[in-house]
Amino acid sequence: MSGEDMAYDATRITYLDGPEAVRRRPGMWVGSVGERGLHQLVFGAVDEAVNRILAIGGGSVDVTLTRDGGVQVWDDGTPTPFRAAEGSGNTGGDEGPGAEGPGLDERLTSFHAGRGPDDRRTTFVGDFGVGLFVVNALSSRLTAETRDAGVRRVQEYAYGVAVAAPSIPEPATGTGTALAFWPDLRIFETTRCSFAVLAERLRQVAFLNPGLGISLTDERTAGAARSVRFRFPDGVRDFVAALDAESGPLVSSDVIGFARDDPRMAGSMQVALLWRGFGAERVLGFVNSLATPEGGTHLDGFRDGVTDAVAAIAGERGQLTAADSDPGAGLIGAGLTAVVSVCLDRPEILGATRGRLGNTAVRNCVREAVRECLREAFDERPELATEVVERVVRRV
């Protein structure tokens, strides 16, 4: 091979921008072009809807799998205007006062108009943080509709590009946003989502966000559509109770739980737990509703706090002395079911698969809170403390 053949300069660089940059390498954005990537596309649209709901403190998201292979996501939160308001730092200004950040049209058509800075109200439904731009780019067709202040607006797109000017505003009732999209069969190996996979993740998100109601309807089946709806007022307490229903007998039927804000970690936490016999430990961690299967500082802090509380009360009762072996989290966690959910302003999610939380301040904050909560529970329910401590001491 000659030196001329090996030459590489700017003329050989292909610059991709807009929808084509996503369509050329879809796996970079949704993980795969199989069913898993298809689900990430759905979660990307649901992610935006859930965050609109959480911004106003509660409401509903409805997801529908339509007969023609499309997906519709509706929420009754305050819509993002199609065009950004004047003074927001974006062009436009025809959607009325009060809008901040990029408009809905810009979010659907621009790389640079995704979610703003994270805060503790920001929920990650999918694993990849897919934005509306990716959803639009990987769909053969997408329709966006908003209803607000008695006015309905609609915009249609094909392959990530608007096909016409927005529709003329027309009178309408209600408030909310609807996105209907049809994943592109030229990109995805299948456009048939798994009802079970979507339902399980949406149920999980509802557990982690007590102000949220969320439904999934499947119109693809013959006969009547099947539908599920989730709303859990007690949040992670309900989550732990549901997990426990899959397991063995209880030590106590009461779930211990608490919620707390802590400015030291710039966030909040929800924790719930119970012991249920001698089965394996089952502790699930989440950050901003994203599962952390590899653990992280929130789960480290949780186990530290449980160990502190159990060891302290055992020592006070003379059931665990300095001469005994340290029971450690492994023994104390036997039969333990728990959910630890933290919501942070600036989550540091580590690893190629975004599976581990790295915020260092979180560990001590969770540790202190869990230790205090468990000590209070043990003081109020000495029979629970006796059962847990005796199980640990017998196994030391």
Largest sheet: 9 strands, mixed
Number of alpha- plus pi-helical segments: 12
Structural class designation: alpha+beta
What fraction of residues sit in β-strands? 15-25%
Would you identify the regions where 5 or more consecutive residues have pLDDT less than 50? 86-99
User: Looking at the chains present, what oligomeric state does this protein adopt?
Assistant: single chain
Helix content: 25-40%
Order of helices and strands: HHHHEEHHEEEEEHEEHEEEEHHEEEHH
Our Rg estimate from Cα atoms comes to 25 Å
Q: TL;DR of this structure?
A:
The protein is of the alpha+beta class and 396 residues long. The chain has helices at 3-6, 19-24, 27-30, 35-55, 104-109, 132-137, 195-208, 236-245, 297-316, 328-332, 360-380, 382-395, and strands at residues 59-65, 71-75, 139-148, 151-158, 161-162, 170-171, 176-183, 212-218, 226-231, 256-262, 267-275, 282-287, 290-291, 336-344, 349-350, 356-357. It has 12 helices and 16 strands.
